[in-house]
Please model this.
Amino acid sequence: MPDDIDDLIVAVERLINQVLHWTPSRWGAASSVSEPATPNRASEHRSRGDVFHALVQRIADLAATAEGEPRRAVPRLDNDLALPDQLLVVTQDLIRAKPDAETVTAAMAAVREARTALWG
Model:
């Protein structure tokens, strides 16, 4: 297992601990990430829940690839309060897959990008 896996575990645990107390309204607040404008729609900010779910999906995709399995959509549950648990589960899946250093680096980058989007 790459040495950086410990850094990934710490980064994910830190992120989870920082959002565990969030209320539904805080999850629904706009993040610093926006969807681009289209001819029929103005640019819209994505919610913090959307950003966090995208991180969960990214880590799940990395785990599936590391396991040699097809990628599957992670369900977006009705309650954003479940998002930290989803991140924990998919991160554990990734760790069990014994990812290579490149995959761990990609996971760390995804966590950093999510943090930036959540807090600017």
About this structure: The mean pLDDT is 92. The chain has five helices and two strands.
